[in-house]
């Protein structure tokens, strides 16, 4: 195993060497109050960057700037022009890909290999994909019954959009929200998570370099309670697109009620990973471990509940335990690290609280549960597997957002479906079997926005992503993703 951390490239070193300002109206500014906040390396707990702390005045200024840019030409601009800018931005991110991988690995702790393989290419892919929709968001002609009337629809950009994103895939979620908003002609205020503001700010520099007009994209880092809440409540904002916890999603809805702004939400999950007895156990063991331990389990689509048929339960759990124990846990910047630290002390405490809750309710930890030796300075936790789990326990019901797998057995299909759907969430589900008609049958019975059959974490910017039930409102990505940043206008013409 390599013990040499990936050296920071020069652009990253210089980016981190000074307090990072926020972006309003094409200008990089400090907060009016001069306030800043620190961002910590979760592998050590040490401060490694300082960022301007946006508050209500900055949100007000950013919203005003986004409004001017919207009214000043962006909303009416040619789709081909916006497509060009989005493609140029994608090219720039590609040129600077390693900077984004390093910034996100440092900021949220994720393995740099994952950031290089998934986060950054996915961000680029979203800008390229949605550049295509900039010229294709069209209306319809409706065959109305009234004689002599023409009725057609047009799609118009919704207006000024507040984008509030979480810390687990920082540059990726910035792209997932910015790309459809910008392609449809909206202007935005982006509030990155306070734990991971850096890649969004670097992205802001490239947005300027790509040639986006001033004010089209404003970026205001700050706390959720102050900057996030001010954005969600702002009367000048027409829509909020949020990714994060279900708990904060509820606050966003309440804050948005003032001016009835549109809201789209991508919230928590508690995905069942369903194993039928005919599945290839070796493949499934790899996939089950990856589905939960990928990104330290800090993913809304993590395969948190292993729903395995009783006939192969013992054998599969033994294999998953072997894989969990073999995962290389370490700082994200070590090239061989497979699982990094949790994002913060608070998140570590939260996950450890779930370990205590599981144990106190009678579940049994069969691997992990502790802090890995030699890594005490950071927020590391061993990959953990719980057995003897009852479906009603908190660890089987609530989103843990950490590397903790709960195992539940089942013996008949109705029992399986009941257990699979037995949470308030409905984001994703996985089914492993060689019997494809059974897989399709089960897919139809899953209350989930995405069902993966013999795969996990399959994504594409063209495929809709979003949740049933308390996992969200609306769909991101794909045509639906772009359309949710538009209003539909119905125009009637009397031809008589
Ligand atoms: P946590 O960090 O506790 O896990 P989330 O993951 O839901 O919370 O946070 C996602 C995003 O929501 C972050 O950008 C955060 O700053 C923001 N946020 C937190 N609280 C609020 C709030 N009350 N209003 C608006 N945004 C918020």
Question: How would you describe the overall organization of this protein?
Answer:
It is built from 16 helices and 20 strands. The strands form five sheets. A seven-stranded mixed sheet has the order 14-15-16-13-12-17-18, with helices on both faces. The protein has a six-stranded mixed sheet with strand order 9-8-7-10-11-19, with helices on both faces. It has a three-stranded antiparallel sheet with strand order 5-6-20, with no helix packed on it. Helix 3 (79-95) packs antiparallel against helix 5 and helix 10 (281-293) packs across helix 11. The protein starts with 9 loop residues before the first helix and ends with a strand. It has helices spanning 10-16, 56-74, 79-95, 97-108, 112-133, 170-183, 198-210, 224-233, 246-256, 281-293, 310-326, 345-360, 394-397, 413-420, 436-445, 478-483; strands at residues 22-24, 27-29, 36-41, 46-52, 141-142, 149-157, 160-164, 187-191, 217-219, 239-243, 262-266, 272-275, 305-309, 364-367, 384-387, 404-410, 428-432, 450-453, 472-473, 486-494. Helix 6 (170-183) links the parallel strand 7 and strand 8. It has 496 residues and is of the alpha/beta class. The structure holds adenosine-5'-diphosphate (ADP). Residues 164-166, 191, 193-194, 224-225, 228-229, 232, 244-245, 248, 251-252 line the site of adenosine-5'-diphosphate.
């Amino acid at each position: 195993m390599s013990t040499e951390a990936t050296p920071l490239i020069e652009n990253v070193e210089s980016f981190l060497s000074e307090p990072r300002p926020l972006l309003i109206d094409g200008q990089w500014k400090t907060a009016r109050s001069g306030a800043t906040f620190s961002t910590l390396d979760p592998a050590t707990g040490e401060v490694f960057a300082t960022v301007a702390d946006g508050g209500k005045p900055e949100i007000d200024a950013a919203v005003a700037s986004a409004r001017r840019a919207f009214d000043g030409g962006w909303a009416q601009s040619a789709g081909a022009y916006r497509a060009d800018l989005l493609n140029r931005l994608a090219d720039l991110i590609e040129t600077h890909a390693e900077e984004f991988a390093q910034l996100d690995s440092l900021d949220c702790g994720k393995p740099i290999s994952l950031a290089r393989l998934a986060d950054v290419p996915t961000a680029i892919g979203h800008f390229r994909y949605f550049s295509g929709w900039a010229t294709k968001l069209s209306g319809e002609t409706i065959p109305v019954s009234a004689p002599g009337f023409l009725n057609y629809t047009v799609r118009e950009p919704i207006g000024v959009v507040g984008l509030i994103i979480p810390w687990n895939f920082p540059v990726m979620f910035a792209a997932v929200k910015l790309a459809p908003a910008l392609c449809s002609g909206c202007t935005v205020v982006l509030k990155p998570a306070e734990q991971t503001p850096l890649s969004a700010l670097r992205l802001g520099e490239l947005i300027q370099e790509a040639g986006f007009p001033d004010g089209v994209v404003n970026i205001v880092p700050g706390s959720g309670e102050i900057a996030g809440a001010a954005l969600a409540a702002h009367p000048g904002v027409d829509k909020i697109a949020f990714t994060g916890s279900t708990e904060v999603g509820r606050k966003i809805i309440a804050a948005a009620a003032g001016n009835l702004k549109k809201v789209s939400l991508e919230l928590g999950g508690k995905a069942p990973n369903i194993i039928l007895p005919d599945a290839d156990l070796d493949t499934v063991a790899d996939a089950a471990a990856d589905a939960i331990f990928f990104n330290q389990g800090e993913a809304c689509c993590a395969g948190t509940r292993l729903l395995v048929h009783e006939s192969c339960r013992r054998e599969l759990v033994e294999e998953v335990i072997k894989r969990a124990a073999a995962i290389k846990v370490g700082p994200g910047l070590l090239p061989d690290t497979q699982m990094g630290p949790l994002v913060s002390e608070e998140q570590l405490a939260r996950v450890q609280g779930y370990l205590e809750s599981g144990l106190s309710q009678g579940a049994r930890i069969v691997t992990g549960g502790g802090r890995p030796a030699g890594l005490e300075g950071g927020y590391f936790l061993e990959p953990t597997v719980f057995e003897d789990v009852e479906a009603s326990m908190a660890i089987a019901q609530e989103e843990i957002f950490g590397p903790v797998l709960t195992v539940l057995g089942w013996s008949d299909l109705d029992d399986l479906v009941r257990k699979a759907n037995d949470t308030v969430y409905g984001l994703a589900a996985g089914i492993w079997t060689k019997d494809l008609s059974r897989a399709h049958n089960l897919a139809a019975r899953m209350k989930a926005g995405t069902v993966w059959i013999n795969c996990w974490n399959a994504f594409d910017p063209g495929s809709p992503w979003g949740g049933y039930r308390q996992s969200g409102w609306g769909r991101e990505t794909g045509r639906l993703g772009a359309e949710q940043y538009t209003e539909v206008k119905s125009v009637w013409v009397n031809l008589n």
